[in-house]
Every structure is written in C-alpha cells, then in structure tokens.
Amino acid sequence: MTAALTARVERGIAWLELDLPAEPVNKITRGVREEFERVLDRLASDPDVRAGILISRKAGSFIAGADIDEFGGLASRGEAHALVRGGQVLVTRFATLGKPMVAAINGACLGGGLETALACTYRVAADDPKTLIGLPEVQLGILPAAGGCQRLPRLIGVRAALDLILAGKQVPARRAHRIGIVDELVHPAILDRVAEEAAARLASGWQPKRRRAGLGDFALDDNPLGRRLVFSSARKQVLKKTGGHYPAPLAALQAVEHGMKHGMEAGLDVEASLFAELAVSAVSRNLVRIFFATTALKKDPGLPGDTPAPHPVSNLGVVGVGFMGASIGAVAVMKAQADVRFKDRDVPSVGRGLAVAHRLLDEQRERHRLTRFEHRRLSRLLSGGVGWDGLGRADLVIEAVFEDLELKQQVFAELEAQVGERCVLASNTSTIPIAEIAQGLQRPDRMLGMHFFSPVEKMPLLEVIVSEGTAPWATVTAAAFGRKMGKTVIVVRDSPGFWVNRLLAPYLNEAGRLLQEGVAVETIDKTMVKFGFPVGPITLIDEVGLDVALNASKVLHAALGDRLQPTGGLQRMLEDGRFGRKNQRGFFRYEGGKRRDVDMAAYEIIGAHPDPQVPRDDVQPRLVYIMLNEAVRALHEGIVRNTRDGDIGAVFGIGFPAFRGGPLRYLDEVGLPQAVATLETLAQQYGDRFAPCERLVSMARTGEAFHPQ
Ligand code: 3HC
Ligand code: NAI
Which spans in 587-687 are helix H? Predict the structure, then answer.
C-alpha cells in the first residue's frame, strides 16, 4: 500500500507530509498511526533533526480526526479501549519527542487532528474558509479522547475549552487564533515558510509567548472554587440542553474536570475508559450512522442511475419575499454566493424582504463569520423590485408567495413568460401538490418543489419535491443548488404533505386531541421533550404558526381521510386571532418577543381544561406511534426514496431524536412485532387511526427490518 506519510529533512527541520492515498480527507487510521510511530522514532533518534513540521499535502484537509469507519467495527469496550489508547500513545509521542514540533494547519483540523496539533509545540494556521478547527466528537456520541479534554483547557482555559468541546463546535481559523488555539494566522500561500521559520526559531530555544484569554476567565479557571463553579454551571447547561439523552458532553465534562484536578495522566485514563463505554453505545452508533447518511447525501445527485449534470445556478430569483422568501434569498447569497433578485407585489414588501435579508447578512458580520470585505461583496449580490426585470437571466426561481393554488398558478404563468429555457421553476409550497401548480405551464417538466423549513438560516433540511412530469435535469439542478446552500437535501415524491408534513400532521393532530381530552399543555410538551424532541408539539405549533399547522392538517385530511382529521381547537384559536409566535399570541404568552408560560385563555378558547384525572401514561405512545405508523405508510408509498432519507428527513426536519436514529431506525430497535402490538392496543382504546398499517404488519410477520444489518 502507498504510504500516507512522507518524511524529508531540510536544514535540520523534518517535514512530515500527510496525504492519505485514495481518500478524500486525511484521517488517523490504524495504518496511519503505525506510519507515524515509525517516522517519529526515526526523527527522535536522528541527531541532524532539530525540529519537525506536521503538514498536510491534501487540499482542504489537515486531519479530519480518527477514522470514524473504524468505530463501526468495535465489538466490545475492550476493543474500543485498545483503539483509543493507541491514539493517545501516538499523540503523546508528539508532545514528548524532545524536539519542537510545529503543526502547519491548512484545511479541516478536527477531533484527533486537533488533538495531534495540540500536542505540537506551536500551531500556524492558514486563513482559509476550509480551515475549520474543533473537537466535534460529542456529535458522534463520544468524547475527545486523545488528550483533547486535557490539552485544550490547559491551553485556552477551562471555560473557553468547554464552550468548544461540549457543543462539538467547529470554528474558523480566525476565531481559533483569537481564542488562542492557533499561535499564528497566515495567508495560505506562506504557510510553509512561516512554519519553517517558527520551527527554526523553536529549535534555537525560542519560547513562544502566549496571550492569555480574558482575565476574568482565568481568574475563575485558576482557583479551585472558581473552577467548581464553572463545572457545575456547565453541567447544568448540558443537562438542560440535552435533557440527559446525550451522555457524551457529560462524559467530556467529567474527563476535563478529572484531568484538571488530578493531572494529565489521570485525565487520559478517564478519557479512555469513557470513550470505551460510549463508542459501543446505541446512542453513538446512531449518531455515527447519521453522520454517514448526511455525508452520503452530500454527494447524492437525487436520482438513481446515470443522471444529467446539474446546471450551474449563479442567478437566483425569489418571488414573494415575506417570512420565507427573504431568508431563502439571504442564505443563497451567503452560502451559494448567488446573485439574488427579489420580486414582490409592492415596494414596501420588497423593501421589507431586502431589509430582512440584509439583517441576516449583518448578523454574520457581527459574529465575525464574514469579513467586512465579504459582507460588502455579498450585500451587493442582493437586489429587488416589483417588476420582472432581472428575472430573465435567472437559472432558478423560487416562489414563496401565499399558500394559495390560484395565486401560485398565476405567478408561474407570468414568470414562465419572463425566464429563459434553462431556468428551473420551484415552489416553496408546504402542502400544495406540485403537479397542480404546474398545470397550465408550457413547460411543466422544469417545475418542482423546494420545501425549506423555518428559520431557513438554521434548519438544515430541504425537501426537493418532484412530480411525475419533473425532468431529471431540473431535479438534479435544484438538489445541487440546495446543497450549495448548505442544506441536507432529500428528494421526495409529490404527494400531500410530502415527507415532513406527512409525519408531522398526525402528530400535531394527536397533540390537539390530548388537549381536548384535558391533558395540560406542559404535560404534552414535557413528555415529548423527555422522549428526545427539542421542543414539544404545542410549542412547535406556536413556532410554525397556527395557520400553517392547520392548513397542513386540512390538506392531509382532505387527501388521506379521517385518520388525519384535525380537532376544532386550532380553528377556534385562529378565529381568536392567535397565530402563534409570529403575532405573539398562541398557546403561550409572549413578552417582548420572549415566550413565557401557557396562556390560560387558550383553554377557554378550545373549550377544554386540564384535568389531573386524565391518565398520562399513553401520552407518549400515542404521539410517537401515530407518527411512526404514518412514516411506514409514506415510505411504502415511495414518498422518500429509502429509509436513510426517511430517517434523515425526520431528524433534520421535525427534530425526531437523533440519538434514536430516526423513526424507521427506532422501529427496528423497538422491534416490529412489538410496534404492531402497541398500535393494536392503542387502536382498541383510542380508535382506528392507530390501526397498524398493512406494511408494518406484513414486515413484522416476515421478520423484516427497515435497516437490515
Ligand atoms: N473518518 C472517516 N471518514 C471521514 C472522516 C473521519 N473522521 N471525516 C470525513 N470522512 C469522509 C466522509 O465520510 C466522506 O467519505 P465518502 O466520500 O467516502 O462518502 C469524505 O470523508 C468526505 O467528507 P465530506 O463529504 O463530509 O466532506 P466535506 O468537505 O463536506 O467535510 C469534514 C469535510 C469537515 C472533514 C467533514 O467530513 C467532517 O466533519 N468530518 C468528521 C470530523 C469528525 O467528526 N472528526 C472527529 C472524529 S472522532 C475522533 O477524532 C476521536 C478522537 O478524539 C479519539
Ligand atoms: P408570507 O406571508 O410571510 O410571505 C408571502 C409573500 O408573498 C409576501 O411578501 C407577499 O407580499 C408576497 N406576495 C403575495 N402575492 C404576491 C404576488 N402576486 N407576487 C409577488 N409576491 C406576492 O408567507 P410565508 O410564510 O413566507 O410563506 C410563503 C410560502 O412558503 C407559502 O407557500 C408557505 O406555505 C411556504 N412555507 C412557509 C413556511 C413557514 O414556516 N411560514 C415553511 C415552509 C414553507
């Protein structure tokens, strides 16, 4: 096998150049570790070598961490322990070589990659958008276990380190420099030279002076009482954020705390044993699967077989720049660097849309995610008007006017006359079948849906909806542009509610039914948060808007029948002018834009009051199983292409608990016969809407699984 590591010595400096053959990223595989060990042994004993430089020769990737593929093969804690100990030994070798080492970082420097860099004496990083630095391990359900929980807090302080480690954040080189992870930030073109100069200086005994972070931070970090305070408040925050479902951040916290109290060696022992426990846990296995599914979707064109190449989209039109349209435009500018033209029905609406989009760009600037120059350049890509001018050269137009079929048809009829032959037409409709919107178009083959979720700048999912008439080139173009906007894209069949709203509607309806039966808002919400959703269903209704939620339910009810019948409560709330967060009136009270407690008036309006006598044991199974049953039906109807897309859609679109792997993975874990039995019991007690669908029953009978091992 070709070597990943090349070593050469020039003027007393050893260059260790890493480029893992036939792999898109550098990662620390078992093989790479062995190569490093051999080379480091030579380096240590070679009297001509005074210092070393670790650098990547793979574009965009310094080291992306340990090889995540190897985690899947870990059969026991013992194996996991042995693997991580090997990693620790290697990283420690960098720190104890007896010769200064410089990490010259260009491209992703994550997990074990950063841990290796931290064990080096000095870090120089290229100021390039691809240079992302962080310890993302907790997102895989594990902890930084090659010394990351020890060296990072010692370098930048406990608080700053916990901020990165507990959330698994990846920060750009510029920020890493500001917080003291990186010693020098340089233009990529001079990385080698600066690293070489630093190595030579270090070899001659130079001691780099490190800037200490904010005095306040170190005042707290440096004394035991302050530190105890830092750890206990971090623990509280983690528990609040994870609801106790994600053990990895707590484990990381424990490893940092132990190491700071008892020293590096003891800290490394704790890292290794916690890693061994977590790496073979169901939570980590599910999170790793989600990582690989998301990665696979990054290069999935959206259609099987030989697909046409996507058309490049450099000009985007957005028609209807209200709540959704304005942020779709802003994200297209920020992430895809597209030239974006807004159109709305009148000047004030265009102005509002542009203001919202500019505000989103300004926020990026304020958070130092954009330089002043980039901010100015990107801001100039946004323009707007009430006429069609500027849309003639669009490669893609996304429509986001009111959810009204006739209006959308009329907009597309006018739009079609303005745009060129190769322009893709997309609707951001949340419920209307694409084929119906496309009716009357001269060229319905280039029409599809691009269903974004709100808030667009935060929600990671995009459903690209294709009807039977949609041409493959249009599908792959929309999917590729969605990915350029930073979204995880699933291609979904045109059908009422598509995938996400199809699963959401029965869930929200059932929450409405529970309310009507006298279960309190807090009980419903807390139950689902306990299951692992980020917010409960009633909060979700307030967030998405009562009008939007009710409209989706009505469409699904009309299309799919009585099992999707909404309760009358939402209608009555709307009649009372309650649209949710957007007008600060819903199931909750709002003050100054902040959500407060439950608005007791809501109970009056829906005509039901919390009754402590109503049993609560079935709240969770009713809400979960009604969604699972619908997911199986929709999967069987081919709404999503496969179980991977179905699970990812639910995790990223609805917030289905990631640690459970998605609804279909969860069904496998519960066991299909058990799921059928639960649904049958619920059906007997609460009605036919719970009757297990035929597909689920037949799969349970034949012993199939959604994700066969
Ligand atoms: N292990 C194995 N494969 C990896 C990997 C890793 N650490 N990082 C990336 N890959 C693979 C991806 O699966 C993908 O493979 P494929 O082409 O065969 O499907 C390929 O590299 C390219 O990845 P992306 O498509 O994601 O490329 P991007 O350029 O969009 O992103 C990245 C690159 C930022 C490095 C992103 O892949 C990423 O975030 N990777 C994961 C980083 C991570 O979590 N590291 C921690 C690992 S755990 C660890 O180090 C434990 C230690 O503390 C002991
Ligand atoms: P909105 O009411 O905030 O914005 C609609 C915009 O369309 C307004 O600016 C309005 O002036 C403009 N408009 C109306 N008629 C027009 C015309 N003839 N020509 C040009 N512009 C016109 O609505 P919102 O919430 O942004 O929804 C837009 C679309 O996105 C709807 O189809 C909705 O179902 C869908 N959607 C909404 C989501 C949400 O959370 N609000 C989520 C996903 C999709």
Answer: 601-606, 619-636, 643-653, 663-670, 672-686
φ and ψ at 209, to 5 degrees? -90, 130
Cβ of 203 below 6 Å from ligand 2: no
C-alpha of residue 25 to centroid of ligand 1, in Å: 7
For 91-100, 133-142, 222-231, 533-542, which range has the lowest pLDDT when averaged over its residues? 222-231
CA 21, chain centre distance (Å) = 29
Q: Domain 315-494 has what CATH class?
A: alpha beta
Gyration radius of the chain's alpha carbons: 27
Angle, nearest 10°, between helix axes 282-298 and 643-653?
Answer: 100
Ligand 1 pocket, residue 168 CB under 6 Å: no
Closest ligand by atom to 144 CA: 1
Q: Please tell me if the CB atom of residue 390 comes closer than 6 angstroms to any atom of ligand 1.
A: no
CA of 458 to the centre of ligand 1 (A): 21
Mean pLDDT of 252-261: 97
Instruction: Give the Cα separation of 586 and 602 in Å (integer).
Output: 7
The chain-wide mean pLDDT, for the chain, equals: 95
Residue 440 pLDDT level (bands cut at 50, 70, 90): confident
Tell me: the pLDDT tens digits for 585-607?
Answer: 999 999 988 999 999 999 999 99
- pLDDT for res 198: 98
For residues 318-335, average pLDDT:
97
**Encoded tokens for 299:** 């290069």
- Ligand 2 nearest atom to the CA of residue 353, by list position: 9
Report whether 352 contacts 425 (CB < 8 A). Answer: no
d(CA 129, CA 171): 10
CA distances, 263 to each of 94, 142, 343, 574 (Å): 18, 21, 61, 60
Separation between Cα atoms, residue 62 and residue 195, nearest integer Å: 14
CATH 3.90.1150.10 fits 501-702, yes or no: no
Task: Classify 444 as helix, strand or coil.
Answer: helix
Mutate to test the pocket of ligand 2, among 319, 352, 402, 583 (most ligand atoms within 8 A of CB): 402
Q: What local confidence, expressed as pLDDT, does residue 212 receive?
A: 62
Give the residue extent of every domain in the chain.
5-280, 315-494, 501-702
Which of 409, 321, 401, 320 is closest to 358 using CA atoms? 321
The CATH number corresponding to 5-280 among 1.10.3720.10, 3.90.226.10, 3.50.50.60, 3.40.50.2300 equals 3.90.226.10
